[in-house]
From TrEMBL:
The lineage of its organism: Bacteria, Pseudomonadati, Pseudomonadota, Alphaproteobacteria, Hyphomicrobiales. GO terms for cellular component: cell envelope. This is Putative heparinase superfamily protein. GO terms for molecular function: lyase activity. Its main location: other.
Amino acid sequence: MIMQLADRRRLVAFGLREIGRRFYRRTAGLRLALTSSASGVPDRLIVAPTDLRAIDPFVAEEIAQRRFPLAGTSFDTEGYSPFEVEAPTEALAERLHSFAWLRHIRADRSAEACARARAITSSWMNNHGRRARGLAWRPHVAAERVIAWLSHSTIVLQGAEAGFYRRFMRSLTYQVRYLRRIVRGLPMDETRLRIRIALAMASVAMPTRNAFIRREGSRLDRELERQILPDGGHVSRNPRILLDLLLDLLPLRQTYINLGHDVPAKLIPTIDRMYPALRFFRHQDGDLALFNGATSTPASELISVLRYDETAGQPFKSLPHMRYHRLSAEGATVIVDTGKPRSAELSRRSHAGCLAFEMSSGRHRFIVNCGAPKFASGDFRGLARSTAAHSTITINETSSSRLLRSHLCRSSILAGVNEVDVERWDDQHGGDWVRAVHDGYLKPFGYCHERSIGLSGKGNKIKGHERLFVPEDAKPPRAPVSAAARFHIHPAITMSREDRERVLLVAPDGEAWEFNVPGHAVEIEDDIFFADVSGMRASRQLVLHFSLPETSEIRWMLKRVE
């Protein structure tokens, strides 16, 4: 009862903070209209910062035919501007309004392609650029659009008449002022940091006073200090956000240097700190681990970022502030999530995957989490965040953390895992072990989950020990409950059953690992992999079903087949 009351108090406090933020953001347009004027609009841009993201000539060709292949679908505007017809999905509308697709026009750069981009931009300014409201002015969309307009201004403005140039600069200035007015009304998440990046980028790309450039740089410094942890991770605990932020921070750093401005004091040290954290999550196949909202990673973007890594070295064994552990030996890697959301505000995309792990070997990932879908309905996103979508244990098909469904709290995690105890050691045979315990199932079912995973020094054996126990000071559960240990297999891996206790996992290049659970039946069940580059994809999973308290411990092993 005490915990329920505490949950309610946290929910009320969180809700009141969110109401205040929303009111602040929704009045930003009014405050901007009362203070904004045509004066102070720069007459030109000084520089167009580089965009490190990948270019796809196919997208440029499709846009030439008034088709927009974005957000997992293709939108045929039938000759109209995309801002004069209704987009089929909200995700596609956000991608259109972000203008991130402008980068693909660089694959053509002909006068005709630039004129087409200019016409679409003009249509946006006519239909959505005069009042700061609606989907087009959501904070993350507006921040991406400002960065895209700055980075690809050479495309939009190539061959432009003086009248369009003035309209473009007036609209860009208005958007920058809007971002300045809403940023303080946002929670401490990646959107707030991206807005600070956009504002710092605008301060050096648009003519302004040096004092203003230093002020925006100082504000960016403070936000980097708040959001980038001492171990280089992001406060959201999402590995993919590190890549997304570096794709914007690296061009910003170079723009400061190229123009001879003083680089903000925290910018370069923060970038250097983020690189080891990014490499920590990189699997043997080169992709990033799928924890807490991470989705597919375009290989070209990861490579383009790592090209600037001046801190190259072996990945850390742990990220103590981000709360992950990594076991690695002779081409085999295991990454374990041993943390929980840092706050309700930072849990809006977090997953209930405490103690989940991923395993890769050679050039392939074998055991994964299902990952987050890039563009999908709320039902699929909710399913991807559940504990069952992670390689860990569930009790009674219930997630270890509770996801709130209210519109106000936007699927934040309010209750569940409160404590995670972690221990790391080397055994007498040179093996590397990590043991962690979480209490996410203590309140609803009376059990704590303890997981131990060890990787041999030769990298050819991985041993696991699952234990569900009742703490000494807790009351024993009154009734038995069902439980399941899930091991999600990457879609590229084929499986064949050897007997009821053993399954052979084989990668496309022939590397094989045997999964073995002595004394327990292993089931092969259908699954879904949300984080494939092509979208959601069918896959398979290994599942160990058991009942508590009849079975409270399970030992399993992965062994490389030579």
